[in-house]
Amino acid sequence: xxxxxxLWPALLSLAGVVLGAGGSxxxxxxxxxxxxxxxxxxxxxxxxxxxxSAILKFLSIASQVEKAALTPPRAGDSAAGPVIGQLVDDMWxxxxxxxxxxxxxxxxxxxxxxAARLAEAGSGGMADTSALRRPQVxxxxxxxxxxxxxxxxxxxxxxxPR
Length: 162
Fold this sequence. Notes:
Elements: H1 2-70, H2 80-101, H3 105-122, H4 130-147
Helix pairs in contact: 1-2, 1-3, 2-3, 3-4
């Protein structure tokens, strides 16, 4: 019985060391998980900011193309063609920015289809804006889905079948 008297404190200290090491390892695991999640959140926010900037640039140019394409030329205004041509070129560059920063192929395709329709309107192949609305709505829906994947849209938001 005398050996248990000296062995018991040693076993308790060994159990304390094992529990402490296990607790320390578990704590490090939790910290690692939290750090990884914070990094994912920061990267996602940076992606959204970059994509938002590209989308806003594209939409700014797209609205100029639409306005220029659908405004009847004034008599004697020979500069309208080159202006629209430059706007269409700028729009394709802005679309390429979206192409580079988008995560999903769905957004890339929607941006391309919308830009192609606008380019068609810019070349005089479209009489009204109704043909632009469907590609525009699909572009907005795809942009939302790419910026906030998995998040549902609020009631009343536009959704079109894909």
